[in-house]
Structures are given as C-alpha cells and as structure tokens.
C-alpha cells in the first residue's frame, strides 16, 4: 500500500487507545490454516492516496496458475480517518472493501500489498481485510515493519525467516523475488498459513520484483488515477 504520511501533531491518545482495542478484537478472530484447495482465482489489491483527503483502491483478479487477468476494478473516495502510525489499515480498509464489492469474479485468496501478521500487533492490512471480508488473505510488503531477519542470498528464490525480535516467533518470510533486488516480506493474513503465502508468492513471479497480483494492482492504480483527476 502506498501510504500518505502527513506532518502534524501527535495522534489523539484516546483514538489510539480505541484503535488498539479494535485491533486486539480483530486479532482474536484470526485463523491460520492451509487453503482447502488450490485456488482457481487469485486477487491482488493496492491503495494509494491521490490527494491527502482521498484514497483510490484497486482490485485485480487473475486466473491461477496462468496469471491471466480476469477483472480489474477500483473505488475512489474520501479518507475519513486521520493518519495514525501503526493503524494505517483503518484508513484503507473501508475503501478496499468498497472496491472488493464491485468484483464480478470473487477470488479464492487475496494477495495484499502490505503486511499480514508481520506487524507490531499482528494486524497489518492483509490480516485486517481478511477478518473483515472473512476471506483467505496474505501480505506481500516491500519494506519491513517489525521483526529481524538475515539477508537472503542475492539470487531469486532464496528465503529467510522473519522473526519477532523479542520472542523469536515466526511472523513472516523474507523472499528474494528477483536476482539482486531488495527482498519482499511475506506473511499470512487470515485463513491462510505461511507456507501457502510463500508458495503462492513464488508461483506468481514473472520476472519482476513484485508478484503479478500486486504488480498489476499497482499498475492499474496508476491508470485509474487518470480517470479521477
């Protein structure tokens, strides 16, 4: 997800407390499990902020394993939630859900541009969306948000664990998706496990750093921005 980080005063502590409680409640509903069967359709979603007060969320649906594009939709709307570090999913999720509702072809699993449980409170945007949609989801992020890892070997396909710095808990995997490029951070969201998230990420690579579902969501976000300007 392409986050807008405006300058300004510290967030309202009451709001932070409320959002923390909501994340804890959502976290209680998380389930990590293999998919019941191989997906036929895989979704990809991404959000960006054309202006400080608006958000554009894109969903693409691809056939799996061919990765042929089946459908692409977007939703453009106002942002009602102020920027609060660590709670960006609350800014994005409502608009992403509006975009999801427009799909004629519902995916079997959703790859989200962002984190799943590789989040300080284990509730990144992929986990957040998975619980709200009750859909299998996992996150593929371009930057680490939390945890520690050893740099993977520079060749495509090398993987290292991402672990909690204090407890050693496995919270994701760090994947070299293309030779000599910065790695991706892959973690399960909801109704998906780490092995599935990693396998699907690798299966969706077609020579680019980003796997096709999130790469195409990002591509179409740029195209759709022209329609809303």
UniProtKB/TrEMBL annotation:
Main localization category: cytoplasm
The enzyme's E.C. designation: 3.1.21.7
MF annotations from Gene Ontology: deoxyribonuclease V activity
Subcellular location: Cytoplasm
Record site feature (Interaction with target DNA), residues: 83
Catalytic activity: Endonucleolytic cleavage at apurinic or apyrimidinic sites to products with a 5'-phosphate
Family: Belongs to the endonuclease V family.
The protein's name in its UniProt record: Endonuclease V
Record-listed Mg(2+) binding positions: 46, 113
Organism: Hymenobacter aranciens
HAMAP family the record matches: Endonuclease_5 (MF_00801)
Transmembrane segments: none
Role, per record: DNA repair enzyme involved in the repair of deaminated bases. Selectively cleaves double-stranded DNA at the second phosphodiester bond 3' to a deoxyinosine leaving behind the intact lesion on the nicked DNA.
Gene name of the record: nfi
Cofactor(s) named in the record: Mg(2+)
Keywords per UniProt: Cytoplasm, DNA damage, DNA repair, Endonuclease, Hydrolase, Magnesium, Metal-binding, Nuclease
Gene3D superfamilies associated with the record: archaeoglobus fulgidus dsm 4304 superfamily
């Amino acid at each position: 997800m392409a986050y807008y980080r405006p300058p300004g005063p510290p967030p309202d502590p009451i709001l932070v407390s409320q959002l923390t409680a909501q994340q804890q409640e959502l976290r209680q509903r998380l389930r990590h499990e293999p998919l019941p069967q191989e997906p036929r359709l895989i979704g990809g979603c991404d959000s960006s902020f054309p202006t400080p007060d608006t958000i554009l969320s894109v969903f693409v649906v691809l056939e799996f394993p061919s990765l042929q594009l089946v459908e692409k939709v977007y939703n453009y709307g106002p942002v009602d939630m102020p920027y609060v570090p660590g709670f960006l999913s609350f800014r994005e999720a409502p608009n992403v859900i509006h975009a999801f509702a427009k799909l004629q072809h519902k995916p079997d699993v959703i790859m989200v541009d962002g984190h799943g449980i590789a989040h300080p409170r284990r509730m990144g945007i992929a986990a957040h969306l998975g619980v709200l949609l009750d859909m299998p989801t996992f996150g593929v992020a371009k930057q680490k948000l939390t945890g520690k890892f050893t740099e993977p070997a520079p060749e495509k396909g090398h993987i290292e664990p991402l672990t909690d710095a204090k407890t050693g808990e496995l919270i994701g995997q760090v994947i070299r998706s293309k030779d000599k490029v910065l790695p991706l951070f892959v973690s399960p969201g909801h109704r998906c496990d780490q092995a599935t998230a990693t396998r699907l990420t690798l299966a969706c690579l077609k020579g680019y750093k980003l796997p096709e579902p999130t790469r195409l969501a990002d591509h179409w976000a740029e195209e759709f921005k022209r329609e809303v300007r």
